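ok trying again, last paste got cut off:
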Amino acid sequence: MKNQLASLAFFAQKIDRQQIQLILVIVSLAALLLGTGAPLDGGEVGK
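nice, full thing came through this time. structure:
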């Protein structure tokens, strides 16, 4: 368990703020593209 915590801390030190921001931008753009492809059904049942 101690070894896993040490390796996780080492991995977290290798990631800098710019990489985290880039990942967040890519994920948000992907979510936006998936959201624009969603059907505009309106949730009406029976049509």
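cool. The radius of gyration is 20 Å. Residues 17-36 form the longest helix (20 residues).
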